[in-house]
Design goal:
The complex is a heterodimer of chains A (about 625) and B (about 350).
Chain A lengths: L5 H12 L4 E5 L24 H12 L4 E5 L10 H5 L4 E2 L5 H14 L3 E7 L2 E7 L17 E2 L1 H5 L5 H17 L19 H8 L7 H21 L16 H4 L4 H4 L4 H4 L9 H5 L10 H18 L14 H17 L7 H8 L7 H19 L8 E9 L2 E6 L16 E5 L6 H12 L5 E5 L2 E5 L6 H11 L15 E6 L4 E9 L12 E4 L15 E2 L42 H6 L15 H4 L4
Parallel strand pairs in A: 1-2, 3-4, 9-13
Antiparallel strand pairs in A: 4-5, 5-7, 6-15, 7-8, 9-14, 10-11, 10-12, 12-13
Helix pairs in contact in A: 1-16, 6-14, 8-13, 13-14, 14-15
Chain B lengths: L7 H6 L1 H16 L2 E5 L3 H13 L3 E5 L6 H5 L8 H4 L4 H12 L4 E4 L17 E4 L4 H13 L5 E8 L2 E7 L2 E5 L30 E3 L24 E5 L3 H5 L12 H15 L12 H14 L9 H9 L5 H20 L5
Parallel strand pairs in B: 1-2, 1-4, 2-3, 4-5, 6-8
Antiparallel strand pairs in B: 5-6, 7-9
Helix pairs in contact in B: 3-6, 3-12, 9-10, 9-11
Classes of the chains: A alpha+beta (about 625), B alpha/beta (about 350).
Chain lengths: ~625, ~350
């Protein structure tokens, strides 16, 4: 089992009750309070401890004689290699991110061990079966990647609240409290700016003798007032859009400076930095309330002050953490003020936290149902009952009286680059793009390899490893900085590169095609990979640069559109051209004839289900 | 709407589920009182789910002693004689369930469920019974219906990998969607297409509702909704347990699952033979098939609609299959939560 969280707890319990006696479980996380509403093997007293270990102990209490081996580790660790996976008859996933799922998928293919995948979000869930050579692998069908937004939408023309959140979190918060050396688009403009970059830098730095109140107001006025004013000066941008309103503190706050100071005493009581809160300071108790512009502005200033007043040491090293109350308050307030400026509806802290933290809503019941289904499929896999493997989808409301919808798995996708080893095509300017760009943006990001090895014929251009000798390491470092056409073994149009991840035992061939020009907006990376069936969910401008998701974005539901934004109409259904694994007929399957008769019994209709047609961009 | 806020502790603990059903529903849950009888695998799963959900109180009834079978699908009871000896199933489950959520009051009511008087049921909002005879189910359903405030009544039974949940919400008004509708992170699934599917050969509990006999406000077959933002008020009228199970089979909707019919045959058989529920074996198969024939003939109902193979399966293995307990217990849990919150199609 990979994962000892929401699905994992239910799954381990059900496996144990169903008679499984040798279970290994991997999970890198520790227990948090918000887990306890559904991860029932854990108690309040376990907060902070390893999920895998505590789950194991809890289950042994009612099944003392079975063997459970727990690993408090990341499944991507090199220890969990093909030999490790080969020990098992079946692998069951209860993960919450796409990255790890892809990794496990490859290892299961390499070790030829069947994989049962699953995911849940709220009332929705699904279970899918993947057997090498017989069914699709997990990556045969494109999976929705975390939503990303064009930079200009975030920096200049937000139209949804989530844009404001991303601005507040990834730009403003990062600029004020994060690593100063990081590139930051906060002052980026869609047109040419007059100010020099040096000047822009100084704005956010607190001056030596600057009082905290002064500093806070200055920042407020700069980002909500001045910057908006500058943006408005570019007429072109606003021709077809609603103009934002610049907001200055002198206009927002009533003329009572003394009342604006929050009660810092409330925060003096404890030295614990994590319990410092602007809400507490200002007496705003309910996270479900939607604050007014004035209240949001108060929170903004108060939070800023508290960071500098009580948590100064952390400034410069902070990254947004959804469990950091003050950070959440700051981001909520900042996002709301920006939203007010742009005429976007404001949101409560509760809602903002969910968006900023990519929180997956979850209940115990769905996980219990999915776990039951996983065990049922696992048993079929062990019995090699291939005709009865099912992908099962758990709906919120029954459709045609079916709450759980079983679908037969499809045959492997012949153009899947993972399990069918189809070569890919990369269009790139070989005189401009460096090897480093290729490694980071293509091999790691798009292809999901962790520890890649890149070869051009017999020449090894790059590899990752702990035991590289100094000369080789230096050679690779040098290669990274070279443009492709100037590598020791030059990469030009017509070249074929072989990319491998030894741990995943996954190889991919990439044909290179030279291209001079790339669209800066649409292809900002200057590279285009095709023959690769991933379907990015991108808004409007097709520009993938700023995302809301972190590395642990949950990607619960793979084949179902779990998060449908208001205007999206993305349908995610299997492509009809494929064939089923094993056709069902009454003659060959006696069990089915019990129920067949007049009950609804129809095969999945392929005609209307074409994934490529369905994506509707705004 | 009461003005009581959730405590900080509740907000932290229930954060993830509040994001699913909203603060209002969570508040209602915390005031709900549930009665459960018959602590077998499926019911145990159900109890876990609603305790985690944060109901006000849970009262357990089951004065049976621990047996091998009782332990087989029950993760609440440690298989240690030193621990379980001398205690009833209800007592043992109670001890464990308390741990899952200290904010829920879990207690045991001693005695036989069929002996409790009508006013006993007064204090409950939801009653779930299992592992009891047809007569007992009928009796308790009647008592619940007599109570002036509405009690949501459920029975659940699981045999092998088949199961059945019966729902009686009497006269029930609810708002159609459970989700707190909010702009921003709108949650809803969008399926523009009807697609057909394959029926599993294992029957995953069919919820009995929509049976003719009384007038229905809800007759429309659920289509794939495009957007889940509206909150229409809907009303349903449920038949009593007795009415529901005595509907002539010919009058049932065409697509009723065969499992429903098979369960009715088994139910009648156990009743006629004076058996405890589940006290049946493969040796009884001839008797069961004979009864099926008689029942079908009496109703002029085509015998082949109740497959012999299915009946054989149901009498051969009466112990519960843990994955199905999890599935049924999960579905039942969700139904009860919807009924308490008054949101979401039952």
């Amino acid at each position: 089992m990979v994962g000892a969280g929401g699905i994992g707890c239910e799954l381990l319990k059900t496996l144990a009750l169903s008679g499984f006696e040798d279970i290994h479980i991997i999970d890198m996380d520790t227990i948090e309070v918000s887990n306890l509403n559904r991860q029932f093997l854990f108690r309040q007293s376990h907060v902070g401890q390893s999920k895998a270990k505590v789950a194991r102990d809890a289950v042994l209490r009612f099944r003392p004689h079975i063997s459970i081996t727990s690993y408090h580790a990341n499944v991507k660790d090199p220890d969990f290699n093909v030999d490790f996976f080969k020990q098992f008859n079946v692998v069951l996933n209860g993960l919450d991110n796409l990255d790890a799922r892809r990794h496990v998928n490859r290892l299961c293919l390499a070790s030829d061990v069947p994989l049962v995948e699953s995911g849940t979000t709220g009332f929705l869930g699904q279970v899918t079966v993947h057997v090498k050579g017989k069914t699709e692998c997990y990556e045969c069908q494109p999976k929705p990647t975390p939503k990303t937004y064009p930079v200009c939408t975030i920096t200049s023309t937000p139209s949804k609240f989530v844009h404001c959140i991303v601005w507040a979190k990834d730009l403003l918060f990062a600029k004020l409290f994060g690593d100063k050396n990081q590139e930051n688009d906060l002052n980026a403009r869609s047109s040419n700016a007059a100010s020099s970059s040096q000047q822009a830098e100084d704005v956010f730095e607190r001056q030596n003798d600057e009082g905290i109140d002064e500093y806070a107001k200055r920042i407020y006025d700069h980002v909500f007032g001045y910057n908006i004013g500058v943006a408005l000066s570019n007429e072109e941008t606003w021709k077809n859009r609603n103009r934002p309103k610049p907001l200055y503190s002198r206009d927002v706050f009533p003329e009572e400076p003394s009342q604006q100071n929050g009660n810092m005493d409330k925060n003096c009581a404890t030295d614990d930095p994590l319990s410092v809160s602007a809400m507490a300071s200002l007496g705003l108790k309910n996270p479900q309330d939607i604050w007014s512009l004035l209240e949001n502005s108060r929170i903004f200033l108060e939070a800023l002050k508290l960071f500098f007043g009580k948590r100064e040491k952390e400034i410069g090293n902070l990254s947004f953490d959804k469990d950091d109350q003050l950070a959440v308050e700051f981001v909520t307030a900042a996002a709301n003020i920006r939203a007010a400026s742009f005429g976007i509806p404001l949101h409560s802290l509760f809602e903002a936290k969910g968006i900023a933290g990519n929180i997956v809503h979850a209940v115990a019941t769905t996980n219990a149902v999915i776990a039951g289904l996983i065990v049922i499929e696992a048993i079929k896999v062990l019995q090699r009952d291939a005709n009865n493997y099912r992908m099962t989808y758990c709906l919120e409301h029954p459709s045609r009286k079916m709450l759980l919808m079983p679908v037969e798995p499809f045959e492997p996708n012949k153009s899947c680059y993972v399990c069918s080893e189809t070569p890919l095509l990369l269009e790139v300017n070989t005189h401009r793009s460096k090897l480093r760009d290729f490694v980071e943006k293509i091999v790691k990001a798009k292809l999901g390899m962790n520890c890649p090895l890149i070869m051009h014929g017999p020449a090894l251009l790059y590899e990752v490893g702990d035991d590289l000798d100094k000369d080789m390491a230096a050679n690779y470092a040098a290669n990274l900085e070279k443009v492709l056409s100037e590598l020791p073994s030059p990469v030009t149009g017509g070249t074929m590169l072989t990319v491998e991840d030894l741990q995943q035992e996954f190889t991919c061939n990439i044909n290179i095609k030279h291209r001079e020009e790339f669209d800066e907006e649409k292809e900002p990376d200057g590279m285009l990979l095709s023959g690769w069936t991933q379907a990015p969910r991108v808004e409007k401008d097709d520009n993938k640069t700023v995302g809301n998701g972190g590395s642990s974005t949950s990607n619960a539901s793979s084949a179902m559109p779990v998060e449908a934004e208001e205007d999206d109409d993305i349908e995610f259904v299997p492509t009809g051209k494929k064939r089923k694994v094993g056709e069902i007929s009454k003659a060959t399957n006696p069990n089915l004839s019990d129920v067949a008769d007049d009950d609804v019994l129809v095969m999945l209709d392929g005609e209307n289900l074409d994934i490529n047609k369905k994506k509707k961009l705004q | 709407m009461d003005g009581e806020e959730l405590t900080e502790q509740e907000t932290a603990l229930y954060d993830r589920q509040i994001r699913v059903w909203g603060v209002d529903a969570q508040r209602r849950l915390s005031k709900a009182h549930i009665l459960v009888s018959g602590m077998k695998g499926t019911v145990v799963e159900f109890c876990k789910n609603i305790v985690l959900a944060g109901v006000g109180s849970l009262t357990l009834v089951d004065s049976r002693e621990v047996t091998e079978e009782a332990l087989s699908a029950n993760f609440l009871i440690p298989p240690d004689e030193n621990v379980y000896s001398g205690k009833t199933l209800a007592e043992l489950c109670c001890d464990s369930l308390k741990d899952f959520n200290p904010m829920v009051r879990v207690s045991v009511e001693k005695g036989d469920i069929s002996s409790f008087g009508g006013d006993f049921y007064d204090r409950f909002d939801v009653v779930v019974i299992s592992s009891c005879s047809f007569a007992t189910k009928k009796l308790i359903n009647e008592k619940c219906r007599k109570v002036s405030k509405r009690i949501a009544f459920y029975t659940v039974d699981c045999r092998d990998s088949c199961g059945e949940i019966y729902v009686d919400l009497q006269n029930y008004t609810y708002s159609k969607h459970l989700r707190p509708g909010s702009s921003g992170k709108g949650f809803g699934w969008v399926y523009g297409r009807k697609f057909t599917y394959l029926l599993e050969h294992y029957c995953i509990g069919d919820v009995l509702k929509g049976l003719p006999g009384k007038s229905w406000g809800y007759g429309k077959e659920l289509d794939f909704p495009k957007k889940l933002d509206e909150t229409d008020e809907c009303q349903l009228q449920y038949p009593s347990f007795e009415e529901a199970v005595t509907i002539p089979w010919r009058a049932l909707p065409k697509k009723v699952t065969k499992l429903y019919l098979a369960m009715r045959v088994i139910e009648r058989f156990e009743e006629a033979e004076g058996r405890n529920p589940g006290e049946i074996s493969i040796a009884d198969l001839p008797g069961v098939l004979k009864l099926k024939k008689e029942l079908c003939e009496a109703q002029s109902f085509n015998e082949s609609h109740v497959p012999d193979a299915l009946l054989e399966r149901l009498v051969s293995d009466t112990s519960e299959f843990p994955p199905v307990c999890a599935i049924l217990g999960g579905i039942l849990g969700q139904e009860v939560i919807k009924a308490i919150s008054g949101k979401g199609d039952p």
